[in-house]
Structures are given as C-alpha cells and as structure tokens.
Amino acid sequence: MIKKEMIAMLLAGGQGSRLGVLTSKVAKPAVAFGGKYRIIDFPLSNCINSGIDTVGVLTQYQPLRLNTHIGIGIPWDLDRNVGGVSVLPPYEKSQNSEWYTGTANAIYQNLEYMEQYNPDYVLILSGDHIYKMDYKIMLDYHKANNADITIAAMPVPIEEAKRFGIVVTDDDNRITEFEEKPENPKSNLASMGIYIFDWKRLRNMLVSAEKSAVDMSDFGKNVIPTYLETGESVYAYEFEGYWKDVGTLGSYWEANMELIDIIPEFNLYEEYWKIYTKSDVIPPQYIASEAHVERSIIGEGTEIYGEVINSVIGAGVTIAKGAVVKDSIVMQGSVIGAGTSVEKAIIAENVKVGSDVQIGVGEYAPSTYDQKVYQFDLATIGENSIIPDGVKVGKNTAIAGETTVGDYPDGLLESGNYIIKAGGVK
Predict the structure, then answer these.
(1) For the chain, what is the mean pLDDT?
(2) Which of 52, 87, 95, 244 is 20 to 30 A from 11 in CA distance terms?
(3) Beta-strand pair 312-313/329-330
(4) How many CB atoms within 10 Å of residue 79?
(5) Mean local confidence (pLDDT), 144-149
(6) Strand ranges across the sheet with 312-313
(7) 359-393 confidence digits (pLDDT tens)
(8) Residue among 119, 110, 134 nearest 56 (CA)
C-alpha cells in the first residue's frame, strides 16, 4: 500500500446556480476567471505549491469542461504515476448511479480511492473560491493542536455572515459552536469550506453512519456538529490573506475587477506562488495602433481595434473598430462588433455581439427572471449566445441562446428583463 501523509479531496460538483446563465452549461469551478484562468486553478495550484501531490477532484454537475481542463494534470505537475490528480464522478453501482447527496456523502462514495493512499490526514477543499493558501502551515497547526478537525476560517462582515458556516471559538481557537448559515449569527468568523480531518476517525464515522442509516451527508449540517456534540477536538485556523467566494454574479464581477486595481489586493503573478492553468497554444495579442487600452487584463491571442477600459478580457477575443468595452468581463473566444458599447457586463465564452449594439443602458430595475440571482447592475450573457446588430440591452438583464431582432421589443431588452432561448439554459 502506498502511504501519503495528506491527500486532498476537491469538491467541484456544484451547479453554481447563483451565477445564473454563466453556469447553465458548465460547472462553477470551470468558469473562466481573470482573463486566463478557471476558478478551479486556484485550489489546484495551492495544492502543488503546498507540496500536496495527490488530489481527487469530485465532479457531478456538467463535468465535461472541467474534465477536459484538468486532463491528466500536466499544468499543475499532477501527472504522476503514484498520486497525481484523479477526476472522480459519482460512483456507479451495478444497478444505478448514485448522485452525491452532500459534501460528506461525496467523500463517503470515494473511500476506496482514498484507502489506496492510507493517509494520516485528508484535506477537504471547495472548487469555487479565489485565494492562495499554504495548506502545509494549516497541517502543522492541526498537528500542534492534536485536532480531529481543523477548519480554516476568516472574519466576514456581520451582515454577510448568514451566508456561511459560522464558528464560535474559545481563547485557544478551539471551536465551541458551529452553525451552518444561521439566521442570527453569533460571530462573524466564517468557515471557508477548507477542512483537515484525521483520516481514520472520519472514515470510521462515515462507515458507521452508513451502516446505522444516520444522515452524515453534509460536513456543515451533520459531520461537524456531531464531532462537537461528542467532544472531539475541533479547531479554527484563522486565515489572514485574500479569499473570495465568487458564488454570486456580484462577487464574481468584483473579484475580477479587483485584479485590475492600481495596487491589486490579490496578485496573480507572484513568482513564488504561481497560479497554473491549462493554456492552449495561441498567437500573441494584437492591439491596433488606433486602439485604446486602459487598466485592463488582455488575454493571449486577443485582437483589439476599439477601446477597452477597466475590463478583464479573455483569450482569443475580438473587439472591433469603434467598439467600447468598459467595467466588463469578456470571456474567451467572444466577438464584440464594430461600434458596439458594453458597460458593466459579464459576457461568457464564444458569444457573438453584433455591430452598433448598446449593452448596459438605462436605469437599474429588479429582475423579472430570478431576483436572488440577478440583483446587480450587470448585464449577463451566457456562452454561445448571439446578439443581433443594433439592439439595446438594459442593466440587470440575462441573455442565453441565439437571439434575433424580433426578441427585442422596439429593439430594446429593458432593465430587469431576460431572453432565454431554447438550448440557452438547461
């Protein structure tokens, strides 16, 4: 049996429904970020930078793009004969395929994968956060406290606390209470969804729960509260760096925009802690002599003939002459037509925006589609969508699919409205 001190299990199966049309055809961890990366690149890079060379990636919802991106793990130096990266879909029984019912159930279904490495510790990660963390330091902290679980945590604004698992600690950082998304939070110390478990203790608990039909499907709702009830030692590891949950359109847009601040809070380009990604071999970017680019990230192979201001532009994008893109994210392979203006928008991959289009016009209005998802000023356009020449698109809007002029009453999609064509969203 191969022995590993710690292996990582990366939960990457989430639908990411709060990202709306951006995740209608792709898992949230596979969504593009920062003009060059995908969200999952961050925890994967953290693993290899922390010396963790065995990572199981648990996929479920729309896994194809994610599987293709990860491949055999070459960009992260995770193509190994022993260990490396393994993509783990829900386990198929002989009669049927059983979907993961929660975070801990996903781990339970992959006990066999983990057993082959016989680890002392298992690191549980989420695939949808932007941050840099040395997990080795967290492991040292876990060992020093002789903990059964160590939970990475950081303070959040109290008004946002109910979105997270909230921990209450004593003076030694030992956790005395844990509440998953409480209505009235008792503290503002939020779980980051990063856990180190003593492996044998966790395995025995999950196996025992399955045998006795006790619900242990979710770490936040079931497993951690049970550890606390039975008096196990559970500690908070307080993280002080940059960490962003990019689970909403607003936070996703903000995290991208923070990359282009004059002094960015999060540095993508540190030599000692590189973020690795799979990048296709594409030609260098081309910025025409009449083009204007200001405070923006421009991806490889992108051609710019118009203006780009305060924006994040992915690889292989074309921005035609006379087009102006401002305060926006434009993902890989999209085309912005001549004379078009784009303001405060998120445009997904391989979108074709026609000529003389105006995106982000008018005043904010509440969404008539889904107010929980669409509550920001942003115009959001799903991948492979087509927007015809000459139309106008308001704020807080959603578009998915191939649209025609007839889909825009009087040539305008008013603020708060949406166009979702067949095939645009599943």
Answers:
(1) 90
(2) 95
(3) parallel
(4) 12
(5) 96
(6) 297-298, 312-313, 329-330, 345-347, 379-381, 397-400, 418-420
(7) 999 999 999 999 999 999 999 999 999 999 999 99
(8) 110
